Amino acid sequence: MNWRRIRALMRRYLYLYRRSPPRIMEVFFWPVMDLLVWGFLYKFLVANHTFNWISYLISAMIFWDIIYRAQQGVTIAFLEDVWSRNLLNLFVAPLRRSEFIAATFLVGLIKIIAITLVLSVLALAFYDFNLLNLGLALVPFFFNLLIFGWAVGLFTTALIVRWGNASEALAWGIPFLVQPLSAVFYPVSILPAWLQPLAWAMPCSHVFEGMRDVMRGEAFSWAQFGWAAGLNVIYLLAAALFFRRMFDVAREKGLLSKLGTQ
Amino acid sequence: MPGIEPIERPVVEVVELTKTFANTTAVNRLSFTVPRGQILGFLGANGAGKTTAIQILLGLIKPTSGVVRMFGQDMEQARIAILQRANFTSAYTALPGNLKVSENLTVFAGLYGVRKAPEKIRALLELLEIGHLKNSLTGQLSSGESTRVNLCKSLLNDPELLLLDEPTASLDPDIADKVRKLLKRIQTERGITMIYTSHNMRDVEEICDRIIFLQKGRKIADGTGSQVLAQFQQKTLEDVFIHVSRSGELLSEEEVKERGGTPP
Ligand SMILES: Nc1ncnc2c1ncn2[C@@H]1O[C@H](COP(=O)(O)OP(=O)(O)OP(=O)(O)O)[C@@H](O)[C@H]1O
Ligand SMILES: [Mg+2]
Fold first, then answer.
1. How far apart are CA B18 and CA B26, in angstroms?
2. Is residue B158 within 8 angstroms of chain A, CB to CB?
3. Which pLDDT does position A171 carry in this prediction?
4. Local structure of B249: helix, strand or coil
5. Which domains are present in chain B?
6. Rounded (to 5) percent helix, strand, coil in chain B
7. B260 Rama class: left (phi>0) / alpha (psi -120 to 50) / beta
8. What's the order of all strands across the beta sheet hosting B12-20?
9. Could you read off the pLDDT of A14-73 as tens digits, one per residue?
10. A83 close contact with B: CB closer than 8 A
11. Average pLDDT of each block of 10 consecutive residues along chain B (264 residues)?
């Protein structure tokens, strides 16, 4: 063991952290998000220990995965073309951006359907939890989560188009920034009052609240559905405009080829 | 064909093209036209603006000012229609490594709307002498092999215009020679127009009908190989290259004209 060599290697990491705020953020990001999600969940469970909270968690897990996979479907597909240096090949073909995005949306959808099926069968087998008990409400829940996931995916992809490799970590991070805010595992009311408006601004909060309503035996909430769908339209539109704008900026700054070839 | 074609419009028309990045002017008031069937070589030192110019032609970079027309259409307005009739490859792009060669080519055949894709792909692989690689994973090919696969991709749509950015950069002399001959043959047989960049003077001398010399984004010479040699009073293109690089100062427009650097 040579202390000088160990120090040389440590210095290498410190150089990077010193220059890169995103990296420092990342060090704290995951632990903080974990603490928030599990902390709020714990708070919720302590206050409501009589519920059948296992089914809550399982359906929340399955539903959260819809958002996450939809987002990853778009962003990782794009990154894979960056990593394989294929991006230029695609964008010198007679291909519209919207067509590229539509393809990633649809492949994502196919994957999500398959994953959701597998997860619900497993949940039935291992935990005696039947997702189909949610009945027809499943359909609007599913599509609202899917569309929100697409919107987040489009947004994270736009960041990568514009800021390149430096923002790659966001591809994985952003959904989990959304998670503590969107009442996945606990109701919005558990959050501190000042965070609640932010939570209600997330389309998926309304889905998760609606899901818990139905699981408690209450009627499907059309109000929650309306909020989720309305917000989704706004988010998807905003994400599409943002993507288009960032793509144009990348074209102006000559970043597309840098993404694809470095 | 009977009947008289009117004087044909150039395939590529570039007028006063300028691209300024944050603090570099990568392409500076560049104008040129390329008639159908010509192979035009872009020569110039590292950072002279060759790649930037080609990527503007492809719509990958938005010019700061100037006009690019291809097939008579404005690039900013008719991007899709233009790209349908053109293609591109470079040593710095690759097809996804986790797909087989034939799978990759099938995907791109779909993007370009190629009819009878399997036959087309087989014929192109034969043409480039890589028929045996059809079922290989693209990521496992040697760089020379993947260069040829990329060339296959770039010929899928029978392009009328082929833009090549250092296509021979990683080829051994034997394969590089074959690729040059192939490109030349494609040009003669199909009348494809090409714009070609390379740091290999041999490439340029052998296949280019015409050379544009770029220095710091500006065109400082434009003509056939021998015209360019005469302009700089050098014996080989390599000498011209070194002369231009070391002369340091940018030649003024007057100097360029004095030396006879007018377009053919
Ligand atoms: N996206 C960009 N942002 C900022 N500057 C850039 C960008 N792309 C290119 N440049 C600069 O523009 C100039 C021209 O670059 P370009 O890549 O066109 O040169 P080139 O002639 O292709 O060089 P090479 O022979 O090394 O490939 C260089 O000074 C380069 O640093
Ligand atoms: Mg270059």
1. 8
2. no
3. 84
4. coil
5. 8-85+162-167+195-264 (3.40.50.300)
6. 40, 25, 35
7. left
8. B25-34, B12-20, B65-70, B73-74
9. 887 777 776 777 788 888 888 888 889 888 888 876 667 788 889 999 999 999 999 999
10. no
11. 67 97 95 96 94 96 96 94 96 93 97 96 94 96 91 96 91 88 90 93 89 94 92 88 75 54 42
Q: Which of left, alpha, beta for A135 (phi over 0: left; psi -120 to 50: alpha)?
A: left
Taking an 8 Å cut-off on Cβ atoms, the answer to whether A251 and B112 are in contact is no
The count of other CB atoms within 10 Å of the CB of residue B57 is 24
Shortest-distance atom of ligand 1 to CA B217: 14
**What is the per-residue pLDDT for A19?**
72
pLDDT at B263: 41
Q: Whose CA is nearest to atom 10 of ligand 1?
A: B26
Domain ranges of chain A: 21-261
Q: Which residues contact residue B77 at a Cβ distance below 8 angstroms, ignoring those fewer than 6 apart?
A: none
Q: What percent of chain A has pLDDT over 90?
A: 65
- Residue A115 sits at φ, ψ, to 5 deg, of -65, -45
Query: CB pairs below 8 Å between A and B: how many?
Result: 79
Q: Are A251 and A77 in contact (CB under 8 A)?
A: no
Q: What angle do CA B126, B129, B130 make, to 5 degrees?
A: 90
Contact yes or no for A92 and B83 at CB 8 A: yes
